[in-house]
Amino acid sequence: MDQLTPFTPFFPDQPDTRPRLVVIGNGMAGMRTIEDLLKRDECEGRDPRDRYHITVFGAEPHVNYNRIMLSAVLAGDKTTDEIIINPRAWYEAQGITLVTGDPVVAIDAANRTVTAASGRVARFDRLLIATGSKPLVPPIPGLTLPGVCTFRDIADVEKMLAAARSHRRAVVIGGGLLGLEAAWGLKQRGMSVALVHLMPTLMERQLDAPSGQLLQRDLDKRGIAFFTNGQTELIFGTERAEGVRLADGRSVPGDLVVLAIGIRPNIDLARAAGLEVNRGIVVTDDMRTSDPDIFAVGECVEHRGQVFGLVAPLWDQARVCAAQLAGDETAMFETRPVATSLKITGIDVYSTGALMAADDADDEITLRDDNRGLYKKVVLRDGRLVGAVLYGDVADGPWYKQLIENRTDVTALRDRLVFGQAFAAGAVAGKTGPDVGAMPDNAQICGCNGVSKGAIVAAIRSRNLTTLDAVRAHTKASASCGQCTNLVAALLLQTTGPIGEVRAPGICGCTAAGHDEIRAAIRTRSLRSMTEIQAAFGWTKPDGCHKCRPALNYYLLCAWPGSYRDDPQSRYVNERVHANIQKDGTYSVVPRMWGGVTTPGELRAIADVAEKFNIPTVKVTGGQRIDLLGVRKEDLPAVWGDLNQAGLVSGHAYAKGLRTVKTCVGREWCRFGTQDSTSLGIRLEKMCWGAWTPHKVKLAVSGCPRNCAEATIKDLGVICIDAGYDLVVGGNGGTEVRVTDPLVRVATEAEVLEYTGAFLQLYREEAHYLERTAPWIVRVGIDTVRRRLIDDAAGRRALHARFLHAQQFCQSDPWAARVAGEEAHEFVRLPARVEA
Amino acid sequence: MDQLTPFTPFFPDQPDTRPRLVVIGNGMAGMRTIEDLLKRDECEGRDPRDRYHITVFGAEPHVNYNRIMLSAVLAGDKTTDEIIINPRAWYEAQGITLVTGDPVVAIDAANRTVTAASGRVARFDRLLIATGSKPLVPPIPGLTLPGVCTFRDIADVEKMLAAARSHRRAVVIGGGLLGLEAAWGLKQRGMSVALVHLMPTLMERQLDAPSGQLLQRDLDKRGIAFFTNGQTELIFGTERAEGVRLADGRSVPGDLVVLAIGIRPNIDLARAAGLEVNRGIVVTDDMRTSDPDIFAVGECVEHRGQVFGLVAPLWDQARVCAAQLAGDETAMFETRPVATSLKITGIDVYSTGALMAADDADDEITLRDDNRGLYKKVVLRDGRLVGAVLYGDVADGPWYKQLIENRTDVTALRDRLVFGQAFAAGAVAGKTGPDVGAMPDNAQICGCNGVSKGAIVAAIRSRNLTTLDAVRAHTKASASCGQCTNLVAALLLQTTGPIGEVRAPGICGCTAAGHDEIRAAIRTRSLRSMTEIQAAFGWTKPDGCHKCRPALNYYLLCAWPGSYRDDPQSRYVNERVHANIQKDGTYSVVPRMWGGVTTPGELRAIADVAEKFNIPTVKVTGGQRIDLLGVRKEDLPAVWGDLNQAGLVSGHAYAKGLRTVKTCVGREWCRFGTQDSTSLGIRLEKMCWGAWTPHKVKLAVSGCPRNCAEATIKDLGVICIDAGYDLVVGGNGGTEVRVTDPLVRVATEAEVLEYTGAFLQLYREEAHYLERTAPWIVRVGIDTVRRRLIDDAAGRRALHARFLHAQQFCQSDPWAARVAGEEAHEFVRLPARVEA
Amino acid sequence: MTPKQEWRSIGPLSAIPQRGARRLGFGIDTKPIAVFRTATDQLFAVIDECPHRGGPLSEGIVCGTTVTCPLHHWVIDLSDGVAVPPDEGATMTIPIRVIDGEVFIEMPRHMPGTGQGGAGER
Amino acid sequence: MTPKQEWRSIGPLSAIPQRGARRLGFGIDTKPIAVFRTATDQLFAVIDECPHRGGPLSEGIVCGTTVTCPLHHWVIDLSDGVAVPPDEGATMTIPIRVIDGEVFIEMPRHMPGTGQGGAGER
Fold first, then answer.
1. Model confidence over B735-745: pLDDT tens digits?
2. What CATH number is attached to the domain comprising B76?
3. Please, what sign has the CA dihedral across residues B271, B277, B281, B285?
4. Which residues of D touch A456 (CB under 8 A)?
5. What is the pTM assigned to this prediction?
6. Looking at residue A619, which CATH number applies to its domain?
7. Is B607 on the interface with A (CB under 8 A)?
8. What is the phi-psi region of residue A60: left when phi exceeds 0, alpha when psi lies from -120 to 50, beta otherwise?
9. Pairing of strands B169-173, B256-259
10. Which chain A residues have a beta carbon less than 8 Å from that of C53?
11. Residues A699, A720: one domain?
């Protein structure tokens, strides 16, 4: 037995004292574990290569690839190269020894070595078994005929593709996820495909009978012939496979027979090594096998009696195993609800949790529209959602899954649950997708930019546009207020047919990183400047762009309120100049009027300044203030100076920050008022003004439920009642009206202030830049907000304290500062004194 | 043969020259025809007894009764007396000769006579056959045994009741409407009931299989035993019925056997008279048989191949037949969709139109919630609703039926159709009835008045309150903004159980007449003063009350804009004094700022007046104007005088009339503006100011779909787009947010003005006093508004013209008039000069 | 009439509209006074404060012998000042009469600290 | 340089912030001029009007050698004044240079009717 020498000794001039970690299996679960392990160290600021000397054995000759995407390769949507996760260079850069095409054949647990087929021996201190699974093969005659294969790895796909080139008919055995994807891929490759399934309906472990039937109907329409209730008795053929015979006598001809009836954990090595096995390799919550130095992850394991076939729990196992390998012994694996989806273009299936009521105490609610191919079922138990099966429209799948995972009490939603999130949350009042196909070519789709349906379709066709962004860029449709985004997307879809996958939107085109990732890194890795962030995430453009720069500037300001120095050059002009730019390049000036209350003196000061500076338009705003429109940039400091003299300060009408706090006159004057809404509004405005937020924020306080301040369409509204105050959040009165969600009812003004500060801070810390509270709450769910603010009182108080802490650094009037000379260069033209 | 003498000769001293109308059958259809005939004459001002000498023959010994209610008699919910439609005295009063218990046995069509069983002969000029139907009886042995009966008339019910008193077990044969009602009635009477039905599911002609199964499940729970797929072979028994045997060998014991398998038209007489018969007596659209002087109505007829078993088409036949008998030969019968409902307490079933898709081109959408016993199915064909089956929640039944009848294009509603009207119309934004039962006693229900659940329940119990108005009066809950009305109603319902019928609300307690009735009378009867209206409708209080007087004053003003003289004493104080009363008896003053635009001069005038009159609070409103709060009543004319001097006029902030037209700055300043929204807003405000309307009206114009003027929560909003203007109506941003419905997209400002004027006039003329546009549109349906304003262009122009005509009488500043001395007494205290 | 009372003129009947009311320029102690004239020329005077929240009854709508408070629509019977059930409470009534078209009300005899002005003035 | 052109000083480089811009107090004909300084101290001058709707490019965010118009977010490459595709159009570029920390731009020689003021003034 040769002692294995590392291919790339990492510290060639020093003895390698690192413990040895050997991984058996170069598949998704094993490699994900290694990636997680390396990332942990990276996040903690240590060199990940210091911890272990890692050796990986892979049985396949390929590097690590995304097995889930094999069906995409089969269907021709991807090439083999495109599904590689980590190229060889990655292993090298990480100092990992990679052995491919040389399967491990024995584990010697006592002596801490593994032996590969080639005779190589590797010593280990820790061993990770990630041998995955093997295809289940029925015990029938004919398995060894040429033209018979399973559907498990790249070699299988290559066999199938070869058959598709030279032969005409395929039989797929198995009507689960894998079998259906195989059948569809072969169909895409031009074969005539029959599918044999043992059960009466397809995907019976993930779908109930009605949705399984819809699926079969749709695939039948696409030309796949189904033989359900079909038990395969033998594969017949002389030179090669010629077809299969079923137990009931039916015969299905085929030159290629694909076995896709399931998988079973690959446990042979572990069993031979004396580790405890059952259906799979038995692991405890810490992903250790019966030998505490030997771990196992992936489809080869059995945890609490359960084996695994979907990818999501594998990622959880990898995370836990990596933590254990890094010495964090608190990390424990637990199974969470999983969701199934089928990767066949244009077929939308989603299923999670229970497929049907377990007994009479469970409820099923179903919605069915056969002609449209729509089916939805939700299963309820004890007022909580326990399962959902969706067919045809799966948009609400993740929402249902979240409700299941959070064990949310859905009693109040029950009646509307099956209608989906938009209806159940009452978020979309009377909006559904209109039928774009029925619209005439001259129908105007984008009102802002005057773009017709015909123009959009013509642009998509003539320029082969495939993304919403591209359509937006070329036609300007949906590039302004965004209200018509759904219409434009529908037109795109209708014109091109479904296009690839949808990518989670990153922060901008300069990086693949998303908002949440970046914000987390700012905190955990203590990134304190734009340069540090850009370096950490590998920005493609050194200067960034107009999308990422303002976002990063805000994120830094929010994370480090006391120390980060604001970058005016990374702000939109309005926030840099502290006034609102108008279409002709002049500015509008809106002084703050606390709670809408003003005085004769203020009115006169505004009148005077309007006349003195020839300001052409004076207009009262819907936000209970007065707007001076058409101020020249050079005049701004002088205008502000005069307003400051009268006690008027910036109303931040230009800011992604607190705009107004609308109030009604309340108990002081109104015969219906229950509380002093005006003075409460002023207290709120005094607390909140100056705060920078992801997008603009509007508040309102109504003195009674008549709600004259329109508090239920504000970001945060307070409705006074006799017994106290109702707080409501996440409303919007603009492009798309959204009524607030109720947050909490409190008894005192002090509580109103605490909840408001905490809510704003939660929004400041967790929403994406340019995301209003309404879409933020739709995205994270009002329950999350309630949990953070109501259930977690300590968390609420901490949020409120952080809000107040941040406020001390920004509550100074920016107008006064500029009147005093700050950023003076901004308001003069060059040369500073004009030459004759 | 005796010649029949009328029992009560009507004009004993004159020869009776009236033509003779003989009616065979004293049932519902025949008598409804006679009632309709008499009513027609009454409405035309002639004595109904002049037209015909009417003789009615009834086979049963009873007077005319409501056969539909026989099941209620059987179940013990009603007595026989309670289901009588017309007592003998009515026949006498109408001069009708009534012969009961003497069935007609022959019609001599040639000689125009009928002969009764007693030998009586009656001559006729016109004959109406209304012989109804006979129960269908299967050809099986045992029919003649005692204890076997049908379920058709009072005699049958009496037999069944007798059996229920003396025997224990009943078998009902037939699982249709009648059989189920019979079974339930017998169950209610204490019998043990089995029901045998030939088909696999119940009521298969009215319900599809799933709803039929739900029905069976619910009735099974109530103790009825079902034998479906049960073909009765014979009724066994010796002395009396002892049970039935089914073809499959099952035997069902029973001392009473009720045959309720259906009905067939009673056509024997007509056939013998030589009239054309088929399944029924064949009638043409004018309800004439093959002999043009002989008519037929009811379950005995066959019209265009169809026979009838439900009551609604019978009423239509009666109306047409009465018209024909009265000489109106244009009246034609046509079948309309009918709806079925089952009269079993607590079982809600509704079905109308097609039960299921006829072929692949039809769509079915179903919603099912078994545990709750909820099932809904709608059937669509070519974008239109053609059927609906509801089980468990039938509230939307009439709405579906109307959609079917109107052949409404439901394409846009399709996705939400099955969710019901509230969801489909988008009227209810995220509101459903919360579970009041689950609320704690100290939960505050009415925020305005601080009333808890406990207080409301206590008041209902201690004072035996039974109406919402009474609860409101005693507790003040829901007496202010009304937002909690549904909660209070739910508490009332929960505390008292269901209470009587709901009465359509009248205008006030002074009269039973409703708003629409009164408005119609004002126009059609040219009522021109409150006194005339009160006289016409019999007011209980000569002076009316504070509810009806303002309403009538408005209705008169709206109907007779040029001539009716406004009654200040019938106006709420705000409209009388032209300022808004505050809780301390002072007033607020809000001058108009056209489109929100103001000037330095106006701001100074407001500042000056605030100081001069010591006005304590100056506040900017959400309606883009400035509010002066706390003005003494005596100061009002002087304050207005000073404001008038600066060109400021009343903003009508106190009126049920046009309040503000909010605008954004639009194309003039905003980089996103597509049209000049501010100047359009000002044009609208100039056109509309001063108009009195049923409730306050707010308008807004947004310069682009970003919608900064929040046009989608206004009574009427305009959203400028590049290609023109979108008009939206019926929004509300206050107590309950309602998003506008789209009305129309137009290209020019002129069209915006025309549609706005027409919309406001439609609202002025047809809404109820104190009804905002939002509830008005919910009540009448946006489709009605669209039909009146879009489809009927001439109607729209007429409405707009009427609006402009009315405006000329009210567009004068009420403040200026009072400054000039009008209503001067209003603003001085008595004595005019205070005595020392 | 006790010596402590006096009848005081408040001007001609024509100064009060039918189905209308007026507040007086003087009150009783700190309380304002309202006078009412019905459709049939009956006259009433009461303290101009609704028993509910003190609303000015003189600004309400007069129907028969009742007035509806303008603030929250309580209905007060002017003949006895009592709120129409189920509302509860009452405002004080004051004797009033007309002689030759001139209206008089019965007031406490003028004493220092009472009289003109009163609470109606803010 | 033709006799019709002249280099004109617009002051010290330090008057323009890095990744920033300034508008000049004079223009060319009726057109305002914007000067830009990048993060790496490259300088550019262009007519201060976005080819889309004339927005003031000098108020935009500067990234690399591009500026984003503040009105509707068109991106203009400062090196040639051309809009980044798919947008189309261009604004005129003007020669600019720095000598000893002082910035000069090349202007048409002063003629009556041009020069200071220009369109930037309303």
1. 788 889 999 99
2. 3.50.50.60
3. negative
4. none
5. 0.58
6. 3.90.480.10
7. yes
8. beta
9. parallel
10. 671
11. yes
Check whether residue B666 and residue B768 sit in a common domain: yes
Claim to verify: residue B118 and residue B88 sit in the same structural domain:
yes
Q: Sign (positive/negative) of CA torsion B792, B798, B800, B802?
A: negative
Asked whether at least 3 C-beta pairs link B and A within 8 Å, the reply is yes
The span from the CA of A752 to the CA of A680, in Å, is 9
What CA–CA distance (Å, rounded) separates B809 from B823? 18
Question: To which H or E segment does residue B589 belong?
Answer: strand B587-589
Task: Specify the pLDDT at position B438.
Answer: 62
- Whether residue B427 lies inside any domain: the answer is no
Domain tally, chain B: 5
* Residue B338 within any structural domain of the chain: no
**E strands of B136-242, at which residues?**
148-150, 169-173, 192-196, 225-227, 232-236
B616 touches chain A (CB under 8 A): no
Q: Using 70 as the pLDDT threshold, list the residues of chain A that sit under it.
A: 1-14, 370-372, 415-416, 420-439, 447-449, 479-483, 486, 493-494, 497-506, 833-836
**Is B669 within 8 Å of A734 when comparing Cβ atoms?**
no
In this structure, is residue A371 part of a structural domain? no
B689 shares its domain with B741: yes
Cα B271–chain centre separation: 42
Task: Please tell me whether residues B737 and B672 are part of one structural domain.
Answer: yes
Question: For A441-489, what is the HEC assignment?
Answer: CCCEEECCCCEEHHHHHHHHHHHCCCCHHHHHHHHCCCCCCCCCHHHHH
Same domain, B146 and B230: yes
- DSSP string for residues in A264-308: EE--HHHHHTT--BSSSEEE-TTSB-SSTTEEE-STTEEETTB--
Instruction: Give the gap in angstroms from C-alpha D53 to the nearest C-alpha of chain B.
Output: 9
The CA-atom distances, in angstroms, between A518 and each of A40, A505, A532, A546, A780 are: 16, 13, 11, 17, 18
| Amino acid A674: pLDDT | 84
Domains and their CATH numbers in chain D: 17-103 (2.102.10.10)
For B222-232, give one letter per residue: b (16+ CB within 10 A) or e: eebebbbebbb
Strand, helix or coil at A760? helix
CB contact under 8 A, B481 and A707: yes
Does A403 fall in a domain?
no
- Could you tell me if A83 and A65 are in contact, meaning their C-beta atoms sit under 8 angstroms apart? yes
Q: Do C86 and B474 touch (CB under 8 A)?
A: yes
Cα separation, B354 vs B205, in Å, equals 10
Residue B161 and residue B186 in one domain: yes
Bridge partners (DSSP) of residue A99 are: A57
d(CA B251, CA A678): 79
Q: What separation, in Å, do the N-terminal and C-terminal C-alpha atoms of chain B show?
A: 102
CA dihedral A678, A684, A687, A688 (to 10 degrees): -120
Nearest CA in chain D to A830: D24
What residue numbers bound the domain in which A181 lies? 137-261
Amino acid at B785: V
User: What number of other Cβ atoms are within 10 A of residue B558's Cβ?
Assistant: 22
Length in residues, chain C: 122
- CATH label of the domain that carries residue A783: 3.30.413.10
Number of Cβ within 10 Å of residue A189's Cβ equals: 17
What residues contact residue C93 under an 8 Å CB cut-off, 6+ apart?
Answer: C44, C45, C46, C78, C79, C80, C81
Q: What size, in residues, is chain D?
A: 122
Work out whether the CA dihedral A625, A627, A633, A639 comes out positive or negative: negative
Enumerate residue ranges in chain B where pLDDT < 50: 1-11, 425-434, 498-504, 834-836
Query: Is the domain of B734 the same as that of B604?
Result: no
Looking at B630, B650, B670, the residue that finishes a domain is B650
pLDDT tens per residue across span C38-66: 999 999 999 999 998 899 999 999 999 99
